[in-house]
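Page header: ASSEMBLY MODEL / two components / 321 residues total.
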Amino acid sequence: MAQPAVPVSRPLPVTIPVREILPWAVFAAVAGLILLYFVGAEQGATHLISGHTVHEFVHDGRHLLGFPCH
Amino acid sequence: MPTMRSLLVRGMLVGLAAALLAYVVAWFAGEPQVAAAISIEEAKAAAAGEAAEPELVSRTVQETAGLLTALLVYGAALGGFYSIAYAFAHGRLGALGARATALTVAAAGFVVVYVTPILKYPANPPAVGNPDSIGRRTALYFAMILVALLAAAVAAYAGRSLSSRLGTWNAALSGVVVYAVLVGVAYAVMPPIHEVPDDFSADTLWWFRVASFGIQFVLWGAIGLLFGGLTERSLRQGTPREAGLRPAATR
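Prediction written out in full:
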């Protein structure tokens, strides 16, 4: 066991290398932005799907979360 | 050291749990104000002799499944972004442990992504806002979020650069000042939006905005507390190396 004999009472957390975070950051950003787009903007300022059903379905959430809405 | 994959999964799950709590606030505080605003809208339309708008999605569905879906999707997305921000902050915020780091990141996220944009472009209930300007209002709102994120990035960079000279506390305060100045300039430069009708109920508007604030506060607060608690627990249960016995030298 290569453990130090002196117990460390309050260890500092080890950092996560940036190169390990980056690919996940890109993945999460793309997925997150698509999700936010449908809650925050689809069929409002712009639309990918025609009609108003998506807008009407998330209508209350869009208003209450602070997004501009009609 | 926690893996990025486990943090991302944890962030999204915690975001879903936080959304359930936010729904409770939205139901009790938000929905009465949305209903009040819609009745104002309908009374106006009736007075103007307009026919009632066809209901594509019933109010009942909007208040329940629709609102819950919106909050869950928003919560999962937010939790994912949050876990990335946490990963960068973990071990890099002075001597803060997992729980304090988690809460600090959540507080910063709440201020940057919600509080800063709504102080310029506040949340509005239905019947407030001109439908013709939705494109401009949406662009300005998202631009404000982007500006706040950039200001936060600059402030974080400034704070970290100054920490060896000023010490952690004063460097953090300097970062806050940098953020406030950048946001203040953006507030002054970006165009205002004045679309609340003169005869709209001030009471409804105020309590709607309070409810919106409460929903976001609970969402971010729950994410910060749950994520911190779970990460702290997994670090304690991990191997000694994962628990952080190695000093944080590689920054």
